[in-house]
Amino acid sequence: QVQLVESGGGLVQAGGSLRLSCAASGRTYSIYAIRWFRQAPGKEREFVAAKLWSGGTTSYADSVKGRFTISRDNAKNTVYLQMNNLKPEDTAVYYCAAGVNWVSIDYWGQGTQVTVSS
Fold it and tell me: DSSP string spanning 6-42?
């Protein structure tokens, strides 16, 4: 099993920045890819960013390209989502998720709320 715990959410004004963290524990050696998703009230959960656990390859939703950056601290088994130039439409609960291959989602965190005021 893999446990994922997100933190770093909060309230920020439009144009501001936040950095979300996702701390992984347990069988982290089984993780192939780590992703961030978000879900706004009344909307479907949507993909935000992904990264190979081993490093290298990243992927971003068009809506966040150039503003968000996914990265990993190997020593801490923690993945970050640096969010810059935040917009009110970025308001959502943000979840990290881990998969044992590139296409599967096997583990979810509990989510962290991000609210961007205009």
Answer: EE--EEEETT--EEEEEEEEESGGG--EEEEEEE-TT
